[in-house]
Design goal:
Elements: E1 6-15, E2 20-27, E3 33-40, E4 45-53, E5 56-64, E6 69-73, E7 76-78, H1 85-97, E8 99-111, E9 120-131, E10 143-148, H2 152-157, H3 164-180
Parallel strand pairs: 4-9
Antiparallel strand pairs: 1-2, 2-3, 4-5, 4-7, 5-6, 5-10, 8-9
């Protein structure tokens, strides 16, 4: 196994409201040196796969500025400093879908682009849902859709269901449900 490079120098070279950009100077075990830039995350994030009943999941449709389109996805958001991951998942589920979960299961933590970002998202399965809406911080109402588990192939074929985290989360949730039912 290769030896991790030595970090010679790190420096914040940019800041926005959401991101910090860090320059990292590395020295590899063979003597080669490189400078990379990476986006630093400030908060943990969660993405929730809500199971409304044995045959359906909940999805949301919201505007994504990165793609400049309305995207079909799962509820997600940042975990606030005073919250655990599961508390953040519960709050985001309530704010974005209007439901709370009687049962939350941490499935896995995913990295987005580990070569360029420190950001990770925890995938949480939400079951035993009940109505419990919370007011969120979204600029417009979020559309909530019920999708049949028997029609996952149609969901995966949709151009507006393209986010890699959502596709991975769907796979992880289906695998977990199959294993535990």
């Amino acid at each position: 196994m290769a030896q991790k490079p030595e970090i010679l120098h790190k420096e914040i070279i940019g800041r926005t409201q959401i991101f910090r950009v860090e320059s990292v100077q590395l020295k590899y075990s063979n003597g080669e040196q490189r400078v990379y830039e990476r986006l630093l995350s400030r908060h943990a994030a969660v993405l929730i796969v809500p199971i409304i009943d044995k045959e359906h999941i909940l999805l949301i449709r919201e505007y994504a500025v990165g793609s400049d389109n309305y995207e079909l996805t799962f509820p997600k958001g940042l975990v606030e400093e005073h919250e655990t991951l599961l508390q953040g998942a519960q709050r985001e589920l309530q704010e974005e879908c209007g439901y709370a979960a009687g049962n939350l299961t941490m499935l896995r933590e995913l990295s987005l682009s580990p070569g360029y970002m420190t950001h990770k998202t925890s995938i949480v399965l939400a079951q035993d849902l009940y109505a419990a809406p919370l007011l969120g911080d979204e600029p417009e109402p979020i559309e909530v859709l019920t999708w049949p588990l028997a029609d996952i192939d149609s969901l995966l074929a949709r151009p507006d269901f393209s986010e890699g985290r959502s596709i991975a989360a769907l796979y992880l949730a289906l695998r977990h449900l199959k294993k535990n039912n």
